[in-house]
Amino acid sequence: xxxxxxxxxxxxxxxxxxxxxxxxxxxxxxxxxxxxxxxxxxxxxxxxxxxxxxxxxxxxxxxxxxxxxxxxxxxxxxxxxxxxxxxxxxxxxxxxxxxxxxxxxxxxxxxxxxxxxxxxxxxxxxxxxxxxxxxxxxxxxxxxxxxxxxxxxxxxxxxxxxxxxxxxxxxxxxxxxxxxxxxxxxxxxxxxxxxxxxxxxxxxxxxxxxxxxxxxx
Length: 217
Fold this sequence. Notes:
CATH class: Alpha Beta
Largest sheet: 4 strands, parallel
Strand content: 5-15%
CATH superfamily: Alpha/Beta hydrolase fold, catalytic domain
Distance between the termini: 18 Å
Number of strands: 4
Number of helices: 13
CATH architecture: 3-Layer(aba) Sandwich
Shape: globular
Helix content: 40-55%
């Protein structure tokens, strides 16, 4: 996914650019920065840990709080069938239970999410993403650690104040310092969907980061 996006941007005429990603988008973003340092000027990751770090901390709490990681990574067709039959319940659980007030998401927004699960190919792609997160993604991360590869460009990490990504084990910025040479960041007093919950605050932090590093998009 990282390579495909770099190729698309190159076709659009952008030889260098900055990238911002939330959740899975953040995982693609830091992979772009690791694999394409000559392209990525700066990177912002929203509410994630590196995939290998997340699995390294997996325990009972992780399994219960972040259940899609294990459930949707199971072999097909079980996860696909669950998503097909329980799409509304799955969407509502995420929107209502991941720290962001449910009223942030209007009925129209929820219907758009529900509708996305009408496509079997899209459902399969969702499950394939979680299968990748349980297999090739952490393998790539660990290979980088073994080679002492780090993200060279400036990295901004933003995360939810109300979700304990590290289970209290350590400071998130200290953890990202193992993966990047120039790290800054802050927590946001909101849930997992803080770009929707606190759009002005999130945009201001991102804008200041991009301006500080004179990054083009």
